[in-house]
Structures are given as C-alpha cells and as structure tokens.
What does this fold into?
Amino acid sequence: MSEPAPNAWEAAYLRFETPEEETRKFLRRLHRLGAELWPRNAQVVELFCGRGNGFNALQHLGFTNLEGVDLSPALIAKYSGPAKCLVADCRQLPFPDASRDIAIVQGGLHHLPELPGDLERVVGEVRRVVRPGGRFMVVEPWRTPFLRFVHWVGSFRLARRAWDKLDALETMTELERVTYEQWLRQPESVLRCLESNFATERKCIARGKLMWVGRRESD
Ligand SMILES: C[S@@+](CC[C@H](N)C(=O)[O-])C[C@H]1O[C@@H](n2cnc3c(N)ncnc32)[C@H](O)[C@@H]1O
It folds into this structure.
C-alpha cells in the first residue's frame, strides 16, 4: 500500500532537516537534560513523535522500551524501527494509569489549538500515565532574543531563497502561526502548568527553546 501523502506543513517539516540531523539534535537535548542517568529499561513514550527520529536518539543511548503517539499517519508511516507507534491524540492518551516511566515531547505542545485548556489536558494525561517517580521531558520553542533574530532574518525573502532550511522553518511557522504565536505569548502560564504537575528537575531556556524535565511525585 502507498504511504499517505504529507500535507503542506508536513512537507516543510520533512524539508527542514534530514532524519540524521534531527536525530543528532534530539541526542544533544537528551544529553543536556541528563538522560544518561535514566534507567535504560524505562518504558518511554514519545508524544507528538512525528516521523520517529526521537526513537533513534533514545535507542542510541540504549533505551529499548519505546512507544510513540502522533496524530499524523503520514509522518508515523515514515518510521520503520522497533518502537510501537500509535495514531492518537495526545490530549487523550491510549495508556492505562501509572503505566509508563518517562514521557517526552519535543516540539508538539505548541501545535495545540486551545491554550491553556489543551495544554492542561495533555499535561494531565501525562501525569495520569507516568508512574510516581517517573519523568516528563519537554522541549518547545521559547521567545528568546535568538528566536526573534531567526524570525527577523526569515522575514527577508532573499535570505529564505538562499537558505532552504530557513525557508522550511518560516513555511512551518506561517502554517502554524496561530498556535505558535499563542504558545509564545503565554510563557508564565505554560511553566505554571508544567511545574504545578511535576517537580522541576532540570530547566534551561536558551537559543529559542525551553528544555525542561519534571519528576512525577506521589499523590
Ligand atoms: C514539530 S512535529 C514534532 C515532531 C518531532 N517530535 C520534532 O521535534 O520534530 C509536531 C507533531 O505533532 C503532531 N500533532 C499535532 N497535534 C497533535 C495532537 N493533538 N496529538 C498528537 N500529535 C499531534 C503532528 O502530527 C506533528 O507530527
């Protein structure tokens, strides 16, 4: 059977970086957030997993028990490794209570249409599904001077024409403008939601990203 065709946003995302570049990016983030210290037999769920390069990075570090959730059959169809991928909405996770050790989101929460309601739904679902003592890792865009600079450069047509990666980024941003801007406008509310459900273990805001890990405490 032929693969489902990507929509315009998915086509720009596939153009933005190669699977190898994306895997290396995920590995850098995992290192930075202390993933080497996490038990390798942990049951890990990657939310908004897209084409699954997050799994390749996790496998590289020795994690073997991997699952993913994404709404897009077209992106999930691009993954061919051992992780179990489910087409589902992260606002309603298809897992039992306290059944997983680690949940990871890299660049998914800013796609949620309704803030803070949808964010509370996803974070509430992660809290339900992750065992006490487990972790929630989040990497999402954050309005820093670096991000402003990148979008400023991207506002020049010539720059976009000269650099395909920048053009792909700006195309994705244009197509997700409403949810992206909504997300960037609410940093306090986003952090409040994460930090009221999980105890912050690591937090770093740099180069246009929030990188955060929280621990699930007992009820
Ligand atoms: C930027 S991609 C993230 C892929 C990968 N984690 C990354 O960092 O590049 C965003 C993904 O979120 C998915 N998505 C958007 N809304 C979703 C939802 N409510 N539930 C599950 N996946 C969703 C899209 O299909 C897309 O694959």
Notes: Residues 19-32 form the longest helix (14 residues). The first strand starts at residue 43 and ends at 47. The chain has one domain: 8-215. The radius of gyration is 17 Å.
